[in-house]
Design brief:
5-stranded antiparallel beta sheet, 285 residues, 4-stranded antiparallel beta sheet, 0% helix
Length: 285
């Protein structure tokens, strides 16, 4: 399964102070060379980040996390789970104590689940084990609107023509309900999400998706999926394919941007002013 990741190497973490100065802060990582792949800042003093570890000449296992709850003065560096081969798709932090992690099985290519800590990372528990996601799943991200309400999104999976595994929770992640096929757009091929590529404004959420007939190796169509009711119902809006998706952001419920590149590696920018329904022509830069 081809998954698309965008990762940057962090050599130092930074704290933005009131007088607009930057302070260099050293973070612990043992003897590992690490790359930060996701970062969450739930309040002024707390940062959670996920990290992959350099193995040989490439970054491999991405099951590590970093956490500070005192504005960067002290940090902890550890693993979310000891499950061999499990890698972090994304993390979502609510506060200094509570954080969620979406994880996939990097050894087998599929499998994984949602994990949660409520004690600052000392212990992590898998949520809905045996009920949400299975050995054929690929979790893409987890997001929480607040302490109670959230959702988890995974690639297409299921009997017959696969459809996105999207689960919602309204009880702090204790139980999850899969969004029924009828609430999702019909697809012509297996749909795939892009790890941690989503945006939120109010109750509206978007994520980037594509369809593939060969297990995710090539794109046959690409879309932005949107829900206006916290993930219960979804609409898919096509995005032209002269180029491959990069990252996406929305600055409000109407205006959004997609970064990407064409087959030659040239960057481009899409812009939407109608909540992702249309994207116009890509602009090179």
């Amino acid at each position: 399964m081809k998954k698309i990741f965008y990762m940057f190497i962090v050599l130092a973490m930074f704290n933005f102070s009131a007088n607009a100065q930057w302070q260099k802060i050293t973070v612990p990582h043992g003897t590992d060379a690490i790359a930060i792949s996701d970062m969450e800042v739930p309040n002024a003093n707390t940062v959670w980040a996920s990290a992959s570890v350099l193995s040989g000449t490439s970054y491999g296992s991405a099951n590590k996390y970093l956490r500070t709850a005192d504005g960067g003065a002290t940090w902890q560096y550890s693993s979310v789970t000891a499950q061999f081969g499990y890698n972090i798709s994304n993390i979502y932090a609510l506060d200094a104590d509570t954080c969620y992690a979406s994880m996939y099985d990097g050894i087998n290519g599929t499998g994984g689940g949602i994990f949660k800590t409520t004690d600052g990372g000392s212990t992590w528990n898998q949520l809905g084990a045996g009920q949400i996601f299975n050995s054929a799943s690929f979790p893409d991200f987890v997001y929480m609107w607040d302490a109670k309400d959230g959702l988890a999104v995974g690639d297409g999976n299921g009997p017959g023509k696969a459809y996105f595994e999207i689960y919602t929770t309204n009880d702090y992640g204790a139980t999850w309900v899969r969004v029924p096929r009828a609430n999702l757009p019909a697809t012509d091929a297996t749909p795939f999400g892009i790890v941690n590529h989503y945006a939120v404004s109010g109750n509206r959420i978007w994520f980037q998706a594509y369809e593939s007939t060969d297990g995710g190796q090539t794109l046959s169509a690409q879309y932005v999926y949107r829900s206006d009711d916290k993930g219960l119902h979804w609409t898919a809006f096509p995005v032209p394919i002269p180029v491959q998706f990069g990252d996406m952001t929305f600055i409000d419920e109407s205006t959004g941007f997609i970064l990407g590149k064409d087959g030659s590696g040239n960057p481009y920018l899409y812009r939407s002013t109608d909540g992702g329904e249309t994207w116009g022509d890509p602009v090179s830069y």
